[in-house]
Design a protein that fits this description.
The chain is mainly β and 55 residues long. It has no helices and 4 strands.
Length: 55
């Protein structure tokens, strides 16, 4: 059986609030680490979120 093209990734806030998002990405087309600016409700502003491991 083939591996799925999409994998789950955890986007951790760089504001050190402990907030994170869980999303999917295509592992075949996006081989580098994901980095997105999203809203952090704990810090109450938009901050950079970087890809981390799901535990």
């Amino acid at each position: 059986m083939a591996k799925p093209a999409t994998i789950k990734v955890r986007l951790n806030s760089t504001a050190d609030t402990g907030h994170f998002y869980v999303t999917k990405k295509n592992a075949k087309t996006m081989t580098d680490k994901m980095s997105v600016r999203k809203y952090d409700p704990v810090a109450r502003k938009h901050v950079e979120y970087k890809e981390g491991k799901i535990k």
